[in-house]
Structure formats: structure tokens, C-alpha cells
Design brief:
Keywords: Membrane, Transmembrane, Transmembrane helix. The protein is 39% helix and 27% strand. It is an alpha/beta fold and 448 residues long. β15 and β16 form a beta hairpin. α2 (16-34) runs antiparallel to α3 (41-61).
Length: 448
């Protein structure tokens, strides 16, 4: 009995309607002292309210399992993307109810407004969808689903607690990866910002002899096949395959800088995953190396079915380090692991020219054996400051310093180019598009 009372007490909540009705009864009692003609009206109002309260409690608590609720969530969430989750609810009462639903989402989101209000007819089922956008990789713990039920009387609310505790991992942006994958398969990468690359010459990789269609290069006409078939036939060429593409991610403290809720490391991880997937779709071999004050993870280049999952599992666990990048260890690892000439995409962040110059000797050594592409970030905050007009002396100082840092970034590009090293200077939000663009351009020009 004590347990039943505790369950009743902890799951019963008084509504504003009840407090309003009680306040009205109190006012009537007070007025009855000044207006005797009110007579027993305050007593009638009080007992009527008491009867309604008992009736409300009875119809809500006479059914033990009047509600059902369940969270529908994917097996894993995609970092930096909008992930859709759902709550499935069912009304098992024989009357219409008003419900309020709270989903206890992980603390990482810092949200306290996940509240859904809806009305359910007898036996009705509903699915409520909502969006969560995680900004950190790792494990996210979800808690209970709590449903508050009110009848048409609406004096009290009964709470149902549904134990839906579960832990969902947040992986690098696989939703973004799938978007690029579909575009790459259908050769529609231009629709999401991937520019069309003008081919210079032809790849040496012969594919097939096919019938001529308008738009084919007449220089590829196969005259012998044309004579045999009596119809124009052309040679078809394809990109060279099985070339090695390695993504190297710097995990030093310079990559901890935040931008729109994500660190630069997370942007580099998302871009690496997309680039590896596009490379595998182009039948190249994708590999990965991470580096901080020491060498982190190494995934040798391959193009088997499980390669992308290996890369994703490695990237899921990577975190920013707090020391400088050990470039000597990186050069030694590149020479030991990468045996043939490859495209090496190095994701880093340089805020000053001296920071680049400290690493430049090792970058030049890597560039002797591989096609090195250094990808680093624009400081969008400084760029915004440099473009704003100065209104006072302090504004002039700030604008001058911002322009100086922005100019240093352009000098870095020239410095790398003077040593035969390709580079991409990009804002974080355009990192993936610009990186895939350059890969397609390099592949089209057969530079690997």
C-alpha cells in the first residue's frame, strides 16, 4: 500500500487549471463575508471542484498502462549533421487525452526545451520527429521518456516514465559522405559545388570500343573498328586506377580552434572521410595517418570493401593533442609506410608564416617522393575584421593587424608553391568541396 501511494504521489502533478479553480473558490468564500446573498454558493463550488478532482483522478488512474512511448533512433549519429529521431506514442485510454512529452537527451546538447505537446484520440498512435545536431564525436547517453497525460477535465496530470536509456555513438559525418557518394556515382558532383574539370589529353587507361555519340572526341575514332562495323566507333578511356591517396591529419593544438561549434580537427576528419570514399569510388586506394607529438593511427592504403569502415573507426576515436606536431616522426613514417608515389593530402593549420617555415624542410622532403597537397584554413574571423571599415584609431589598429595576418596566409601559399608543393587555403565550411575538387583535378591531369 505504501509503495502504491508513493507511485501515485510521485507521478501526480497539479495543473494550472486546478490552481485557478481553487483560487476562484477562495475568492467566493471571501466575498460571502461581504455579500450574504451568496449563501451556500462557495460550498457548492468547492464540493463540485472536489467531485471533478476525484473524477479526474479516477479516469486517469483506473488504467495502469494508459500510454505507450518509445524512442526510435539510428544506431549511430553523424557529427555536424542534422540527425532525425522520433518518439512513437500510443493512447490506450478510451477517451481523448492531452499529452506533454519530454525526451531526456544527452547533456552534450545543453538543451532543456525538448517538450512536445499533442492531443490523441482514443487508440490513436503518433510519431513525433525532431532533429539533433551533435558537434563532438563520442558516446551520447539518452535517458527516460516522460509523458504527462491530462483528460478533458484537466485538473491533474499523470506522469508515465518509460525507461529508454541508451548510448549512441557519434561518428564522423557519414551523412555528408553518403551525399557525396551518391553524387560521385551519378557523376553529378557539380550540383553540390564540385566544379567541372577540363581534361587535358587522355588517360592512358583503355576501357572499351563503343559506338560514337554526339559529343565524343573525334580524335578517338577507331578507324579499323569503324571499317568492320560500318558505323563510327570510338575508343573509350578511363581514369587510371589503384593509385594511392593518403590523408594525413594534424592533431596538434593548432587544430583545436573552434568554428561554428566544431573544431578544425573535426572539419579535417569529415573531409578526410569524404575524400577517402570518393577515392574508393574512383577505384583508387585510400589510406590514413594521424600525427601529433607522436604518430597516432595508421591505415595502409587499400581499396577492399571494409577499408572505409576501418578509416571511420579510426577517425571516430581521434582527439586533439596539446603539443607541437612531430614532423620528423611524420617524415619517417611516410617513407616507411608509403612505398610508391602517392597523393598525400596533409590537413594542418598555420596561423603565422614562421609556423609554416618550421615544418617546411620536412614538407619539402615528403614532396620529393610524393605529390603533396597541404590543406590549411582561413581565419574567417580575421577576414571579417579586415573587411570592416575602421571608425576610430583602435579600429585602424585592429583592421591593420587583421589584414597583416590575412596577407601572411597568402604568403604561405606562395611559399609552398615556390617549393613545388600544392596547397589549398580554404574556409572550414568549404573544406570538403575544395579538397574533393582538387583531387578530381589532379586525377584528371594525371599528376599522380
Amino acid at each position: 500500500m505504501k509503495k502504491l501511494f508513493r507511485l501515485f504521489y510521485t507521478n501526480l502533478f497539479l495543473t494550472n487549471r486546478l490552481f485557478g479553480a481553487v483560487a476562484a473558490c477562495v475568492v467566493l468564500y471571501l466575498l460571502s463575508f461581504f455579500f450574504p446573498w451568496l449563501g451556500i454558493m462557495p460550498d457548492i463550488a468547492f464540493y463540485a471542484l472536489l467531485a471533478l478532482l476525484i473524477a479526474d483522478l479516477f479516469i486517469l488512474y483506473r488504467v495502469a498502462d494508459g500510454m505507450s512511448a518509445k524512442r526510435l533512433a539510428p544506431e549511430r549519429l553523424s557529427n555536424s549533421d542534422e540527425n532525425e529521431l522520433s518518439i512513437y506514442i500510443e493512447n490506450r485510454y478510451s477517451f481523448r487525452i492531452n499529452t506533454g512529452i519530454i525526451d531526456e537527451i544527452p547533456a552534450q546538447f545543453q538543451k532543456r526545451d525538448i517538450w512536445f505537446a499533442t492531443t490523441l484520440a482514443p487508440g490513436e498512435r503518433k510519431q513525433i520527429n525532431y532533429i539533433l545536431r551533435p558537434t563532438r564525436r563520442g558516446e551520447y547517453e539518452f535517458g527516460f521518456i516522460r509523458v504527462f497525460v491530462r483528460s478533458a477535465i484537466g485538473l491533474v496530470s499523470k506522469r508515465y516514465n518509460f525507461e529508454q536509456a541508451e548510448t549512441l555513438p557519434v561518428y564522423p559525418s557519414f551523412l555528408q559522405m553518403r551525399k557525396y557518394e551518391l553524387m560521385a556515382i551519378s557523376n553529378r558532383l557539380t550540383e553540390i559545388g564540385i566544379k567541372k574539370i577540363r581534361r587535358i589529353g587522355h588517360s592512358m587507361e583503355f576501357e572499351q570500343v563503343k559506338s560514337y555519340v554526339p559529343g565524343d572526341d573525334y580524335r578517338t575514332i577507331n578507324w579499323k573498328a569503324t571499317a568492320r562495323r560500318g558505323d563510327l566507333m570510338v575508343n573509350s578511356y578511363t581514369d587510371e586506377k589503384s593509385q594511392h591517396v593518403y590523408c594525413i591529419i594534424d592533431k596538434s593544438r593548432a587544430m583545436r580552434m573552434p568554428f561554428e561549434g566544431l573544431s578544425l580537427l573535426d572539419y579535417a576528419i569529415n573531409a578526410s572521410l569524404v575524400l577517402s570514399n570518393v577515392a574508393l569510388l574512383k577505384e583508387d586506394k585510400a589510406g590514413l595517418i594521424t600525427v601529433g607529438e607522436k604518430i597516432g593511427s595508421i591505415v595502409p592504403a587499400d581499396k577492399n570493401y571494409a577499408q572505409l569502415n576501418k578509416i571511420m573507426e579510426v577517425l571516430y576515436k581521434e582527439k586533439t593533442r596539446y603539443l607541437e606536431t612531430n614532423m620528423e616522426a611524420l617524415y619517417t613514417t611516410v617513407r616507411r609506410v608509403i612505398k610508391q608515389r602517392s597523393l598525400v593530402v596533409f590537413f594542418a593549420n598555420y596561423e603565422s608564416l614562421p609556423a609554416l617555415q618550421r615544418q617546411l624542410p620536412f614538407l619539402r622532403r615528403i614532396a620529393k617522393f610524393h605529390l603533396l597537397l597541404v590543406v590549411f584554413f582561413e581565419n574567417t574571423e580575421l577576414k571579417t575584421l579586415s573587411e570592416q571599415p575602421a571608425k576610430d584609431v583602435e579600429g585602424i589598429y585592429i583592421k591593420t593587424i587583421a589584414e597583416k595576418f590575412a596577407y601572411d596566409k597568402k604568403l604561405m601559399v606562395k611559399e609552398l608553391a615556390s617549393h613545388g608543393i600544392q596547397s589549398i587555403l580554404t574556409s572550414p565550411q568549404n573544406l570538403t568541396i575544395n579538397t574533393v575538387n582538387r583531387y578530381l583535378e589532379i586525377k584528371a591531369k594525371q599528376k599522380i
